Each structure stands twice: as structure tokens, then as C-alpha cells.
Amino acid sequence: MGRGWGREWGGAGGGVGDRGKGRGRGSGNCACVAATCQPAREFRGRSCHRRRRCYLGPAPAMAQILPIRFQEHFQLQNLGINPANIGFSTVTMESDKFICVREKVGEQAQVVIIDTSDPMALIRRPVSAESAIVNPASKQNRVVGAMQLYSVDRKVSQPIEGHAAAFAEFKIKENAKPSTLFCFAVRNSTGGKLHIIEVGQPAAGNQPFVKKAVDVFFPPEAQTDFPVAMQIGAKHGVIYLITKCGYLHLYDLESGVCIYMNCISADTIFVTAPHKPTSGIIGVNKKGQVLSVCVEEDNIVNYAANVLQNPELGLRLAIRSNLAGAEELFVRKFGTLFAQGSYAEAARVAASAPKGILRTRETVQKFQSVPTQSGQASPLLQYFGILLDQGQLNKLESLELCHLVLQQGRKQLLEKWLKEDKLECSEELGDLVRTTDPMLALSVYLQANVPSKVIQCFAETGQFQKIVLYAKKVGYTPDWIFLLRSVMRISPEQGLQFSQMLLQDEEPLANVNQIVDIFMENNLIQQCTSFLLDALKNNRPAEGLLQTWLLEMNLVHAPQVADAILGNQMFTHYDRAHIAQLCEKAGLLQQALEHYTDLSDIKRAVVHTHLLNHEWLVNFFGSLSVEDSMECLHAMLSANIRQNLQLCVQVASKYHEQLGTQALVELFEFFKSYEGLFYFLGSIVNFSQDPDVHLKYIQAACKTGQIKEVERICRESSCYNPEHVKNFLKEAKLTDQLPLIIVCDRFGFVHDLVLYLYRNNLQRYIEIYVQKVNPSRTPAVVGGLLDVDCSEEVIKHLIMAVTGQFSTDELVAEVEKRNRLKLLLPWLESRIQEGCEEPATHNALAKIYIDSNNSPECFLRENAYYDSSVVGRYCEKRDPHLACVAYERGQCDLELIKVCNENSLFKSEARYLVRRKDPELWAHILEETNPSRRQLIDQVVQTALSETRDPEEVSVTVKAFMTADLPHELIELLEKIVLDNSVFSEHRNLQNLLILTAIKADRTRVMEYISRLDNYDALDIASIAISSALYEEAFAVFCKFDVNASAVQVLIEHIGNLDRAYEFAERCNEPAVWSQLARAQLQKDLVKEAIESYIRGDDPSSYLEVVQAASRSNNWEDLVKFLQMARKKGRESHIETELIFALAKTSRLSELEDYINGPNNAHIQQAGDRCYEEGMYEAAELLYSNVSNFARLASTLVRLSQYQAAVDNSCKANSTRTWKEVCFACVDGQEFPLAQLCGLHIVIHADELEELICYYQVANVELCYRALQFYLDYKPLLINELLLVLSSRLDHTRTVSFFSKAGQLPLVKPYLRSVQSHNNKSVNEALNHLLTEEEDYQGLRASIDAYDNFDNISLAQRLEKHQLMEFRRIAAYLYKGNNQWAQSVELCKKDHLYKDAMQHAAESQDAELAQKLLQWFLEEGKRECFTASLFTCYDLLRPDVVLELAWRHNLMNLAMPYFIQVMKEYLSKVDKLDALESLCKQEEHVTDGACPSHV
């Protein structure tokens, strides 16, 4: 249970009158709410004690009559918003819907979106943008406001002094269109003003708005207050003005009269928006309260008339917003005008009276009683005319006016008023109009919501289709059957539509059977059918009887309709047996069959196939069982086989899978109908894989003479059993043997076929078979004929007669395995003569020639078509040489190598390999695992390569040896080629290869090869030799080919002999060689020798390294020579700069001076700095003088003790740093006059003064205070800078006293802030005094909390008399900090800071003080504070005292939560004591049990 309790305070209310007209001014009272944790609630006329003084109302009697309603919706802090993020720069509210707060959590910025209708549902989203606001500048205790008004039409702007403004659309009574008004408020030195002006041109026909300017009153304690927000209450025509101090000003928009002023918030409301639900204003204050204010419609008219004594304002407000409160005024005014005969004015008053108080029957009777003057409209009509102009007539007025109009026959006026919604429709008005125009009456009934009369009008006007729709819409239930009979008598078609509408919902409006009876009473079969089709479309089981009625009536009167209904299969719940009999009687056999279930009925009807649709009948069999289908088929074939055979075949074809193919075959065979069997099996044979089906089909086709179909099936089918079919065809003895030939050919029965045909003297079919059917079977046929000892002449003739393609290999194999190969020689030679290039033909011919020894080698070399591998393999055992010939011709590498190795034909093998030029083959041959490798290599070196003249053959062979990693064999090979004066002796690549191979395998031969050979790549060979550490050989190569730079590099880098390198350089005398040598000497720190070599090589490129090396070894003389040589080659700035420095190092000042005075690119400033750093001040003087660097020149002259010249150059440099340096040097050199002259240029800089004083070793602190006086007199704006510089040397107490006496403490506030960290008492008290004078209570509170070294009691005594409550609150805080609790609490009670009083009492731990505070709250009637104190001071209050006080003051309900908490604590303590006692008893019991018993 929380201890923070919300509080509400009540008080009297008042307002502010129109001070511009000289009326008395009332005082406004506060109507705000303190920051609480309560939910949003409304406050009507409540006020609170505030930190700011509020004005009390005029009299207690008017305390409850307030024109505004105040409401607190919620608090941002209660929603988790950090109070630091509640401000103008972080909170926005563009409308009353949402509030946006930008806050920062850690390093992440986010925006919190609060829905005012559901504030607990916060939306947090990360953002990166920062918001900003320009704060108004404070001057002379007021805030200057400025705004700019821009005209869109004229595109010009006008500056206006103002703090808050708003636009409004307001309609003046006399004008037809609203005017655009601009309202703005300003607070300046002369006071506050509210201006209301019209912007833009008035609308056509409008009178211009008279601008208003009224005073805005600000209470005495809010003299610095100014407007901050303005909103327009469009509904009530008022202006809401909010000020910085939380005051609300309510003005009438039309007249500018101040209706009400009051304080609504203790804190500034910094953001506002229109509150649309109440046409008021909503805003957020700095405490996070979301507040709204609106007009109290029940009180504002009475408030204006009675409190403000302004009845005209009250009338305007009542008329404008239709508000109550001015009824007596309107009645009195109406009576006065009516008595005066001003009927039109009286009518206007009655029309404008709020809440319609004068629009009664009495008013109408009054106007009716007035006689009509001749030539004028009657007052009653005038009254009605004014009412029509202003809006809608009420029920009474509408009846009276319509009665008059209908009497005059002007119905069009009535129609016009109804369209314009000027009349209030009623049943009476509809009855009045119905006699004249039913349609017009219908519209009146509709608007008046009289369902019974509306339905009657719909029926009378024939709009039957609208009756159901309207009845559903308004929830009215008429007698539907009666209405249906009425409609049916008028129009059956409309009756049908109406009946359908009655059943269109799930819950029908009428009984279907009754509706059907109505149709049948009128013999409306067609309409009844349409109705039932629509009504029974859902096919429900309960509708079976109606479905039977529908079908029965149509089968009797319209069979075609019944057939269509049944065909659509809409219904399934009717009496099927009854309907089936009716269908058979009506001749609808198809429908009858669909409905019959008895087999005898079906068989009786199904045999009449001529009366049935065949396609349907075939499909009908799909609904029967297998047994019933077979019975029906049997019946159909028995009744008329000729008529029904085709249909039976169709049924069997479609349902053979269900009925069984075997059963159907037996059915047709039973009736010996092979034709039916043929057609049946023909329909399924192409899709069936049953061998019996195919066999039966072949048999049926043979019996019906369909030989072509037999041939097709034998050729295309793959499902029949070939053995069974072959045997059947043999037994069938067909005149045409083609089906048998096809079966034997397809399934490999060629041998059986040849035997069958040969033995049955059907040789003609053998020739037909190999010539026309399948020539590819010729080899098998020839083999079969040879097996039956057929004559060779017959076989030769047969072979020669075959013109188709067949396999020669197979034919040769068939003949060869029977040792009859020569039989084919004539045929083979004839094929060759025909130009045949088939390898098999040539292979066979080669075999015959080899076996007959008929010039086989010539044939093998010259013939290009035989297969080398086949023929070579055939020759291996017969003649290896012929095998090599055949293999070489076909490049059968592995086979040839195998034959050569097996038969020691290495010379032939070597020649073949060289000619072959195949690296992969060489790699295979030169493998170490090859036992014949050595013999083969010898033949390659001695014979094969010596014979060749093809460079590619040599190249491939050499690469093969290299790839095989045979360096010694390769050297042997290359020496044979290169050194034996062959055609390849001068070949560059071979020479390179020989040397490289020697480098790799035999280094002793490298120098010999280098000397003997001349056509090799010297640079590459030398590089490889270097990488192989053959430096002398590389040097010999470079020398042989005059590559001297590389040669000397070998001597320097690899051999490492600089003496040989120097001798070599002397001998060749080339610049590049000298440069190489110089770099090497420089790396060995032989600087002098390196410089000499660079000069002889005329090479300045390494000047950076030379300069560095010479600088390290101090070889400046040699460096000068080198740089002079380098300067001749190029005018580099670095070279010339280094030359200047080298001349300075060698003390050649005259040469240096001549050089810098001449043209050069040197960095003289850089050289001067180096000379200065090296102590060469004479050279530095020359260089600084040359570049006019007076500051550095002055420093140099000081080092040369030329003080006067140094001062002169300091004047030219005009630098504080230079002045200080020269001044200090003059002081050190006892040149005090010159030092004084320099000091005059330093003392003008305050930040240099301290260093100067220290250097002069002046310890007189008084000089500092004189300097302060000097700055105070002549440079007061720089006093804080001086103080910050001297702060370490000053006595802060004395300094505060100094400025206090001078009356300039506010001027040095920054200094006081900067030294407050020392916690000096004088500084703290001075700063606290300044903050008090500035009324900065937040800064004062922060100073007090941070620094405690001051007189607390003295400050508290001063602050408790301060006029601002926040400072008095700080006084209480100080008393609390010094343990003067009673004074602290008393001060809080005086300022009504009840929460602080309770907290201080609780922190004091003084029970007597807490009890006194509790009693004081009861004496003052602060019941809520009494309750809050119970929980704030809970630990200090005695329950018996609280009980007594609560009982005596009848506050038991408020004290009950406190007593509940007390009781809970006491019970908890008792429970703990009980538990502790139980534990002790248990321990005692254990102890007793552990002790030994004694007898």
C-alpha cells in the first residue's frame, strides 16, 4: 500500500469584469490542482492554495457558478517520463490526440508517443533528430514578443508585437458568411492588450467586423507575466488565453468581453492545443500534468447574466451555442414584442430561443389568434417562414404548416420542404398526406419510421419486392400469407418473386407448404415449379415429400420438365421407386433405369436399346455390380444379338477391367461370336499386357481372316508368348508365312525358321526374309544353311543377292568358325571393286591374303581401310614384322612396343618413337620400371637421332629426356647433337639446354661449355649460374659478352672483392660500373672513396645517402665537391640546401654569402634553422637576414650578444614571444634599459603579466590588487579573465571584500563560480547573496547542496522573510539541515507546504513533533493530510494516539489502512515469537533426550 495520497482543495471562485467599459473589477481565484498521483478527474470550480497569491471571489453565494470546467487527464511522470524531459524543447502536442516526448536513454535518443485516449499504451521509437527552441530574451523584467502576419492573397508580411495569436472563423448575426478573424495578445511596458481584427477582404454581402482592443489584466504578484498560448473555442465563440504564470483568461470572440480569469496551474503551461471533444483547450505544464479547460455549458449563461451582470452577453452565448440559462429572458422578450405587435421580431425571438423553449402549441395558437391584415401575410405564415429559414420545424409546426399548404393545393411546396429536410416527419403527417399522394406519404412514413403504414403503401403502389427488404431492415413482421394471396391475385409473376423473397433467408418468413397450397389453389404449375426449385435448392432430407410432389406433378403434366430436373440431379431425398415407375410410364426409360434397383426391372427395360441413348447406356453399366452387368449383357445378346452386339462390345471394352477380360471372352465364345471377340479384344489389345489377350486376339483375327492385323500384332506387340504364337502359326498353315517370319525374326527363332522353311520347300520365303524383311539376319541364315549342308553355290548366290545392310563381321565370324572363310573371297573382292571402305571387309581380305601369302606386306602398307589392331593381333603369332607394320600404320603404340620388346626389335622401336613425337609415349617408355630402357636409349642416341633431320623430332626427344629426369643421358644425347658438328650444332636452345643440364648434373663441365659454345643466351645463363652459386662462371659469361655492369655486380655482391671490382672499373672505365662500385663503397662506409667513385661516374642520383653518410662521418669537404658536381646535373632544392649547410660547416662564409645572394632554389629558412640549432650563429645571421625572418634573427643576435640589433629586429617582428625572449636576454645581460623597452610591449597582454612578474622576481602581491583596480577602472569587461589568471596568487576572502566595497560583486560572478570549489566561506556567502537577489532559487539550492561553508542560520533567517515561496521553502530546508526541525515544520505549515512538513517531521525522528503536526492537520480540517501523515510518519506515531484522534474526529475510514498495517506488523511479531518459542521447546526436548538416565 503506497504512502503518497492525492489531495484536493476547494475554495471560492470569482471572475474579471469588462474593465474597458468602466465596470468594477473582480478578483480571480485559483482553480488549479496540485501534482498528485490520482487518475484523471474533473474539477468544477475548485481551487488550491498555491505558491503564488490568488485573488478571492466577491461573495460565497456565487461560489458554485463558474463558467469553466477544469479537468486533469493524466500526468506524464506517472507514465514513466523523466521530469528532466518535460519541457518546451522536448514535448510537442500538435493536436489533442497525441503527445510526443523526446528523451534520451543512455546514448540512444527516442521519442515517446502518448495517445491521450489510452495514455498507458506508450509507443517508443528511436530517433536521431534533435529538437531546438529559441528562448525569449529577458530584459527589464519583461519578455519582448514579436510575430509576423503574412497575407497569402497579397503576398506581403507585416511585423506585429505580440506573444500569442490564433485565427478564427466567426459568423456575425447580420452576415451570411463567416468572417476570418485574427486574435493576438501582447504584454509590453504599457500593459497587456487583446486585439481582435478581421484579416483579408470581407466576403461579398458581409458587413466588416469592427476590430476590438481590450485590456488584459495581470495580478500584482504576476507583474512579469505575459501570454504564452491562445486557442479558439469555435463552438462557443470564445478565446482561451494562457499566461506564463498559469492564468486562464476567457474572452467573448464577438465583443472582446472578458468572461473569466483564474489561475489554473502552479507551473507554466508551455504547450497547448485545441480540445475538440469539448471545444476547449488542452495543455501540458512543467510538472507533466495534462490539463484541459472548456466552457461549462450549464453555468456560463447564468454566469454572464448574474455574476457579470451582462444579460446581452448571456443572450448571445445562449443563441450562439444553443445553451440553457436564459429562458426567462427569451420568454419576457417574446411577450413584450408580441404585445407590441412586432410579430416578425417576436417570431425571430421564438425561433432563436435555445432548447426550443418557445416553439410550443401555445406559441402557434398565439399566432393563429392574430387576425390577418389585408394585403399582408398572416403572422402564422410569417412565423413558419422564419422557422423554415433557420432550420427544421418540429412535429407540431410541420402538421400545422402542411395542413395550410394542402388546403391551398400547393403540394409542390410540401415536396420541396421534405427534400430540404425542413419538416419533422410523423405518422400523423403521413396520414394527412396519404389522401392526396400515397407516394409522398410513403416517403413521410419512411422518415417517421411507421412500418405498418410503409408496408401498406408498398402494397398499394405495387412495390411488392420492397416489402421484405423493408420489413427486415426495420424488424417488422406482417401477415406474410395474407400479403402473398393479395399479390398472387394481382400478378402471379410478382407473387412468385414475393414468395421467393419470403424464403431467401435461413429462417423463412412463411411455411413452404402453405405457399405451395396457394400456388396449387390457382393451378399455377409452372410458377409452383419455379418456386419449389428455388426453395428446395439446398436438397435437405426434410424436404423429401416436397421433392416427390415437384417431380410427380411435372411427370404427369410436363415430362420434359421432370426429365430436365432429374437430369440436373438437384434432389436426392424423394421416393425413388415411385418416381421410377412414373418415369417408365412416361417413356423416360433412361430415368427409370437410373431409379430402378431391382435386377428384373433393369433387365426388362435395358433390352430396349433402340429407345435408349447408347452413350448413356454404356455409362449406366458403370453403376451396376459385376454380376448384374454380366446378367444384363447376357440378356441383351440373348434378346437380339445382331442388334445389341455392337453395344455389348462397347460395354465390354469400357468395363473389361471391372468385369474381367476372361469372363467377357468366355461370354463371346459362348455365343460363338468371334467377330465380337475380335472387336472387343481389338479395343483393349493395344493397352493390355496379358499374353492370353494377345494370343486370343491373334487367333480371332486368323479365324475372321484379318491377316494384316495378325502381321501388325506380331510385329508391334511385345506381350504375347512368342513360343505359343510360333507354334500356333506353324499349326495354322497360313497361306502367307509373313506372320511366322516376323515372330521368328523378332524373338531369335531364325534357326528354327530356316529349318522349317527349308524342310517344307519354302526356300522362296528364305530369300524374301533376307531380302525384304531383315537383311541384317543374313549371317545367321548363312550359318543355318551351312549347318543343313546347303550347297555353296546356293549360299554364294544368296549372299550376292542380298542388297540390304548386314554385319560383315558377323558374317565373317559365322563362316570363319566353320573354317569356310575362303567362301567369301568373291563377295569380298566384289565389295572392294565397288569401292567399299568398310574396315571389316578389308580385315577379312587381309586375313585371306596373309594366310595365302599373297603379298601381305604390300597390302598392309598400301591399304588404308583395315583395322590395324585387328590385323596386327592376327599377325603377331604368324609374322611379328607384319604385326609391327600393321601397328605402325595404325599408331597402335602399346601393341607395337609390346611386340618389339618381346622380339628385341629395339632399333625399330627407337625409330618409331622418334618419328611418333608423342611426349606421353616417351614418358611411358622412359619409366625406370621399363627393363628395356637402357637398350632403347642406346638405339635412340646412336641410330634414331643421328638419322633424323626434323628439329621437332629432336625437340620432343630432348624434352622427353628432361621430363624423365635423365640428366646424364641427356648430356650424352646433347653432346652427340651439339658437339659432333651435326646440323643442330648452332641451335641456341640446345646450347642453352646443354649448359643448364651441366649446371644441374655436372658442374665441372660448365666452364668448358661456356668457353666452347658461342650461341647461347648469356644473360639468362649467367643469372642461373649465380642462383646456382657458380659466380666465377657467371663473371666469365658477363666478361665474354661485355656486360660489364653485371660483371662488376657479381664481383661486389657475390664474390665480395672490392679490390677486383676497383681494378675491373679502372680497366673498363664505364660510368655505370663506377656507380655500382660507389654504392658498394658507401654501404661499407668508405665515404671518401664512394664520393670519388660517384664523381668519376658523374652520378648524383644517390645524393640523399651521400649527404647522410658524409654528415655522419663529418666529411664536409668531400661533400662540398660532390654537391657541386650534383648541382651541375640538376638544380634540386635539397641539393642546394645541403650545399649551403656544408659551406657553413666548412666556415666558407664568403662563398656562402655569394651563393645565397645569387639565383638558387635552396630552402634558406630551413638551412638557417639548422645552423641556429648547430650553434653556427654567424651563418644563421646571414641566412635569416636573407629571408627577413626578424624573429629568428633577433634570437640569433641575442646569442651573438648584439642586444641593440636584437631589439631593433624585435620591433620589426612585433611578436610577444620575441619580445619576451629578447627582454629576458637583456635582463640576463644586464641591459636593463633595453629590457624595460621590451617590457612595455609585454605588459599590455594580461596573460603574459604573471610570467613577466615572476621573471623579474617581484614578490609584492599588492601589485596584483593594483592591477585589479586598474582593470576595474579601464577594462572592466576583462576583469574576469585577469582574475582567472591571478586566482592562484589571490586571497579569495580579501578579493571578495575588495569587490564588495567597490559594489561590483555581480560583475565578478564568473570568478566566484570558478573558485567556489575551494569552499571558501566569503565566496559562498557572496555567491548565495547574488543568487538570492537574482531570485534564482534553483541555483541557490544547488549551491547550498554542493558547498556548506557559510552561515546557514543567518541565510535561513533572511530567506524565511522572502516574498517568493520557493526561497521560504529553502529556508525550511536549511533549518532542517541544522536539526531545527520545529522551525522547519512551522515554516512549511505557514506556506501550506504540507508534503514538506510531513517529510521533515518524519526525518526528525521526533515523535512529539509528528504528533503535534497530526493534531494541527485535524484542527485545520486537513483530513487528507491527516491520512497522508499516518503513512509518512508511520514509525513515529503511537497507534493508541492515532486511534483516539481518528475516533474523536470521525476519521476511522481514513485511518483504517493505517490500523491494518499496524495489525499486520503486530501479528507478524507474535508469529515470530511463537515460532521462536516452539524452536526453543524443541531444542530443550532434544537436549533432555540426549542426557543419560540415572537409576
> What does the overall shape look like?
flat
Which percent range fits the helix content? 55-70%
Tell me the number of strands: 21
Largest beta-sheet details: 5 strands, antiparallel
From the N-terminal CA to the C-terminal CA, the straight-line distance is: 62 Å
On the 0 to 100 scale, the average pLDDT is: 80
Uncertain ranges: 1-63, 131-142, 1490-1495
Order of strands across the widest beta sheet? 1-2-21-20-19
The whole-angstrom Rg is 65 Å
The helix count comes to 80
Summarize the structure.
The chain is of the alpha+beta class and 1495 residues long. It is 58% helix and 8% strand.
Features:
1495 residues, flat, disordered N terminus, 4-stranded antiparallel beta sheet, 5-stranded antiparallel beta sheet, 58% helix, alpha+beta, disordered C terminus, 21 strands
Describe what this molecule looks like in 3D:
This protein has 1495 residues and is α+β, with helices and mostly antiparallel strands. Helix content is 58%, strand content 8%. The protein contains 80 helices and 21 strands. A five-stranded antiparallel sheet has the order 1-2-21-20-19, with no helix packed on it. Strands 3-4-5-6 form a four-stranded antiparallel sheet, with no helix packed on it. β19 and β20 form a beta hairpin. α56 packs antiparallel against α57. Residues 1-63, 131-142 and 1490-1495 have low confidence and may be disordered.
